[in-house]
Task: structure prediction
Amino acid sequence: MLEVVFGESAAGALLFAGVAARRDIALLPLALGFGDISDGLDGRESALRSLMSCFPEIAGEVVDTNMRNAREGLGRLIRRAKAGGSVRIWTSASPDDACGACWTARVLECAGAETEVFLSMLPQLEPRPDGTVVSCGGWGEVSPEEIDRIAEKHTFKAPGGLVHSMAECWRSLEQENAPLRAMLNGRLVSAPEDLYDRFILGEMRSLGGVFSEAEAIGRVLGRCRLGISDGLAALRIESFIRAGICEPVTQPEPGDPAYHRLIRLK
Result:
């Protein structure tokens, strides 16, 4: 079975857990919840560069690696499907995972591949055997020791009608080509670029005075659990600066991420 994942951390977790060997993973790290999706795989490089712009020292290398992995993963996916092999899509409620799952369904449908498709759906809350309950934003946050147990409970064979519905969902999202895509009320929908602004501004206001931009972003990711990346949060704060909502107090050290600075609200 070919295991389809949408981030390096998820791929690493599956490998470490022994769920799959490297040749049995199709890694598609395309961050499809963000940016232009009108030009398929070829159009993702620009969106990824924008999303990584807060990491100027490593952005080029990371984007090149992601695009290379995505092209290799896409080729592996199509070859395996056309050969009649089964495919398992590891997905969750995070926008990138949900988009990745629907995009994969669309790829399979366009390729005319008749293959068994399984979905491993990460629950938003998962009870552990010791009675604790954990919340993970994606499979990359699940400890390798837990992956098999959780996947066994939450993996099912997707009926053809479901796969077709997922493919149609992606076709509609491509036509709308909004700045963002998000999970709202359990549905994957197109969204405006300012969708998450009130959450980001709320965390910034709670810090008050002069504060670390990195801390504000960390609070957004850890407390709000929106399923977005630090890069997207940093891009929105850059837009706040351009709009005069906040201003930098210090500048990051050379080679540091752009958000390694102090800022304040005006």
About this structure: The mean pLDDT is 92. The radius of gyration is 19 Å. The longest strand covers residues 87-91.
